[in-house]
Write a structure and sequence with these properties.
Largest sheet: 2 strands, antiparallel
Helix content: 55-70%
Order of helices and strands: HHHHEEEEHHHHH
Number of helices: 9
Distance between the termini: 23 Å
Radius of gyration: 20 Å
Length: about 180
Amino acid sequence: MAPPLTETYLGLLQLLRDARLVFDAHANAILYLIPVLLICAWLQALHARSGLYTKSLSLLAGVFIHELLHLLVGVLTYAKPVAMSIIPRHIDKGYYELGHVRLNNIRWFNAVFVGFAPLLGFVGVAIFIHWRTRYGWFFSWWDLLAWYVLAQVSMSAWPSTSDIKIALRSWPLLIPIAGYFAL
């Protein structure tokens, strides 16, 4: 049986009040994030019409952070990183790799952490935005550079197809994690 209309209406009003409280508490951070999202959209549109070298140059800082996170998590989880590169290369039938980290000890217990390491880029973006807006925020010319780098890191923080393939080697760990989130 569906709840009465008044309960649905009151629930919606409470949700709107909660959303306003969140916005009021984090307005500066949300406003700081807007240019980052706009630059992400601009970069995505640029990449749709450009070649490999334009993509690699426009995402150089983001690719560096992406690969550095793989490297650091690889060291921490004993995956034995041996090489890192941010030089783009052709790998197969129109597919390119903007960077890579070679690891010598990918096992079932560390693959998920190494594969999903770039997601820590989102944590870094959130920490930077919190740091920049914690006492209020006033525009500085450095913000233009920060927004561009944060956009690159945000776009590069998504795991690639090869990252997901690496993470799937940890299927014994992924089953309980997926079960936990399914509940």
